[in-house]
């Protein structure tokens, strides 16, 4: 392998993809590359990914590296923190096999993740998965005790301009398969006109499909300025003590925001506020709902999500993965049936019309003349 290109570097992959261009080298420090990060990197089409950390640490079966490998994007893995610190944004790097060179000087080496090696590493995660699950359950129960206000209703929910009473609400998170799922429920959105809540980057997901979010909820770390400027209402998720780092960004855009101090995730409080304000139905799309989802987000438990879903469960429909349950497709037999169905009334109308009846009589006389009937 011989690759030479410009390096783009960031500790946060979600920030890097905003400026990474096709053909460049992505330099990241991302342990256990998740599916969302992998898909965002695939869209940028880099020549190579250099990861300072382990793309598969063995904690759980993360599928990101397999997605990148399938897309033909090689990963030079676990090069180390020193190499990550040495490389600067805009450096011209040359990679020969698994060795990294800068200005002709060798600076370090890593491990190329082949398909076989990825499968081997994923198989090894099965040994650790039970231990991770046990720790995850313990953390969830521990944090559930601290965050029980979610289920007891002692959390003060602010007032909003958006009226939820009796309305359907769609909560969109830019999670796994969000594009496919949004496409699958597009007819629902167009027919029922639900209140559209984008959780951080979920607002941009709605924009991709031509919808303007009614509300953006989150800490404002992954939503675009464009989305914040055109959305109708902004809710900044603050820490329980009231600190709201994301508020500065909103104010810098001369926009107003409601601050909502609460534990848990931003998608949790999006569902909670919709429920509290009288929503008739809450549809969650792309949200995080299982252990692997939360491990990919770097969380050690899902207490708030567990408690919130207990509380809003009577009004909640989870649309995550709906595209896999139902794939809209047109088959040949459907087209033939549609064609026949359309032709039958056309033929009946044509036969009943006087000009066509005269034409048929002339055709009948001509056939009798030709065949001597």
If you had to describe this structure to a student in words, what would you say it looks like?
With 373 residues, the chain is α/β, with parallel strands linked by helices. The chain folds into 3 domains: 119 residues, Glucose Oxidase, domain 1, CATH 3.50.30.10; 174 residues, Rossmann fold (3-Layer(aba) Sandwich); 40 residues. 45% of the residues lie in helices and 18% in strands. The chain has 17 helices and 15 strands. The strands form 2 sheets. The protein has an 8-stranded mixed sheet. β6 and β7 form a beta hairpin. α5 crosses α14 and α12 runs parallel beside α14. The radius of gyration is 28 Å and the shape is globular. 35% of the residues are buried. The mean pLDDT is 84. This is SteA-like C-terminal domain-containing protein. Keywords: ATP-binding, Kinase, Membrane, Nucleotide-binding, Transferase, Transmembrane, Transmembrane helix. InterPro entries: Put_SteA-like (IPR047795), SteA-like_C (IPR022215), TPK_catalytic_sf (IPR036759).
